[in-house]
Specification:
single chain, two-stranded antiparallel ribbon, 3 helices
Length: 119
């Protein structure tokens, strides 16, 4: 199983795309025969660390979507031209986007804390 996971892993150091975490973020790295550092998966505890990293990735994607909603709500607000119903809808979109962003950032902090306790 470890060989299968190694095929889908890049080198341990570094960050993922747009600073998104990689699936092996919380795993320890070992050096192979060629000197490359690869993640080490041993036991059920490491599976939970992989699950935490995947949840972390999804929560960060949710934060990006929430930022998109805030921007979309801002554009709606600007283009509402003072119409009360469109302005209220835009304000609601902005507030819901901010709430979603706060929830995603808070959940990411909790997942990171819990994963570091397992590691």
């Amino acid at each position: 199983m470890n060989e299968l996971l190694i095929r889908f892993a890049a080198a341990c150091p570094g960050h993922g795309f747009f600073s998104f975490p990689t699936w092996y973020k919380y795993l320890d790295c070992t050096e192979d025969a060629n000197g490359a550092e690869l993640p080490r998966v041993i036991g059920i505890n490491n599976v939970w660390l992989i699950v935490a990293a995947v949840i972390d990735m999804l929560l960060r994607a949710a934060a990006v979507v929430a930022i998109g909603f805030v921007i979309f709500g801002g554009v709606e607000y600007i283009t509402s031209q003072g119409q009360p119903d469109k302005t209220a809808q835009a304000r609601s979109t902005i507030i819901n986007g901010i709430i979603g962003l706060v929830m995603a950032v808070s959940a990411t902090a909790v997942i990171t804390f819990v994963a570091h306790q397992f590691n």
